[in-house]
Amino acid sequence: xxxxADQLGSNPQAKQLLENQKAIRQMLANPETRKVLQSLQKKNxxxxxxxxxxxxxxxxxxxxxxxQELSADPQAAKAMERLNQTMNR
Length: 89
Prior knowledge:
By secondary structure, the protein is an all-alpha fold. It has seven helices and no strands. Helix 4 crosses helix 7. The termini are far apart.
């Protein structure tokens, strides 16, 4: 069974992002990204990783649940919206 990193690397969108180190650095330097990451860190890390693995295998329900919980936090929801706007520019 492939590990999480192998699965992530085989996803075309994730692979493109991982290969673009400049984009990753910019995204991680973004204050909105930091807010979202801080909110995610409050969640159970194992649950988040399992949800991401399931999403890579085509089942996005667990990841959707985590994101819905995260969006229930007003500060995290604002940060996610700003991050989404930044990423879509």
